[in-house]
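Q: Could you fold this chain for me?
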Amino acid sequence: MIQREPFTVVAAQIDTKLGDVRANLDLIRTVSAKISKKKNAEIVCFPELATTGYALGSKWKKLAEEVPGTITDELSKLAAEHGFYLICGVDERGSGNEKGNIYDSAVLIDPNGKHAGLYRKVHLWNEERMFFTPGKSFPAFKTKLCTIGIGICYDLEFPEPARVMARKGASIVFYPSAQPSTAQKQVQIYVRSRSCENCIFTVFSNRVGREGELTFFGESQINSPDAKMLALAHRSQNFASARLDLKVLERQIELVPYLKDLGPEAYSN
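A: Sure. Below is the predicted structure, expressed as structure tokens.
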């Protein structure tokens, strides 16, 4: 069932403290309270690996934690406190037959504090391949608002993931990210393209700050399928927010029915 009334989504933008989970959780709590005070948010997305910081190398394995676990329990309390869906990048340790693996993941928590989904980054970038195990699928998660998808950072730079999630019914794809300044020009194109070519909203939540040689450019933003940037966070801001009207999707799909007009029978030739 599609939510017929517009609702507010937020792309949170933070500078984490590398390797300091406690400080990062406190920052997520502070920014969440600020968002809750200023906006009647219904979905809030924090960046990639927001609980640990990004450039950890071998320390990714040391700080990884199972999901659910103490870190995600704290995020669950936060979502329930403010009554919004919370998406947050985490350093996940596998369990059971996945024990020994770690994943660059994002959790989805519902407004009651219940775990509603988990996405594991499929497209690993550079050094990430030395430590993380790639995910194997692009799930779509049903919420009371609409069906959503999640990609992480480098996933944005491939057209296929957003298309897969859109074909599974996703109206919005969220991208928690730690995109560096070297990718800034390309990402500005990719995030809007993913919206237009799939008739979906995209929510790009990016890091700011610096870790070693990496500088994160921020510019967290929300884009609509008719090529409009609905919100953009400048470097000094904690978030970008926009009210989404899903009726825009219906109108755009009628105007340019890309998913209906696909010709996959020709793509392998």
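A (continued): The first helix runs from residue 21 to 38.
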